[in-house]
Amino acid sequence: SPRRFCLHPELSEDLVGTHPPGAHSLVAVSVGYFLEDFVDMLCNQKLHQSWELLFHHSVVIICFGIAVLLHQYVGFALVALLVEINSIFLHLRQILLMANLVHTTCYRLNSLLNLGTYVVFRMATLAWMTRWLFLNRENVPPATYAVGTVGMAIMTPMNIILFYRLLRSDFFR
């Protein structure tokens, strides 16, 4: 996604109607991934363990689904996919926890990378998206603005809570 903004600077001007070749497919494949992961969690995890992630996936599926169906807001969805860069380190953290490698240099290094990418790719991206939505509210139809606003209002606190949990777990034991 960051490469797309370098190669297609028009995205910085128009996140609604402009998207580079392949971007629509990337967002559509992402919807498929989130749907598959949603169904997998429903089938293989207890609801009390996965409800937050199921809720997160529902919001993403709705928002990305709108972009895919309308062929609009694909650029905005590309920005949202920057958040997933941090998922690499979140998933590696889970793998290291399951392998009981908490007291290793690898876990510590991953914790630092996880926190750094969390701030840059989750918190900063969500803040930028919220700001963009607010600044462009006149150019976004009311229904779409409502979906975007609700989506950001859900995602931002969820990510702040997860950040707090990560800090508490990995740095303030």
From TrEMBL:
GO biological process: membrane assembly; phospholipid homeostasis; plasma membrane organization; regulation of membrane lipid distribution
Domain TLC: 1-173
Entry GO terms, CC: plasma membrane
Highest taxon, organism lineage: Eukaryota
Locations listed in the record: Membrane
Ranges annotated as spanning the membrane: 51-70, 76-92, 112-134, 146-167
InterPro entries, alphabetized: TLC-dom, TLCD
PROSITE patterns: TLC (PS50922)
Keyword annotations: Membrane, Transmembrane, Transmembrane helix
Membrane topology label: Multi-pass membrane protein
Main localization (coarse): membrane
KW Ribonucleoprotein (keyword) present: no
PANTHER family, sorted: CT120 PROTEIN, TLC DOMAIN-CONTAINING PROTEIN 2
Protein name as annotated: TLCD2 protein
UniProt source species: Hemiprocne comata
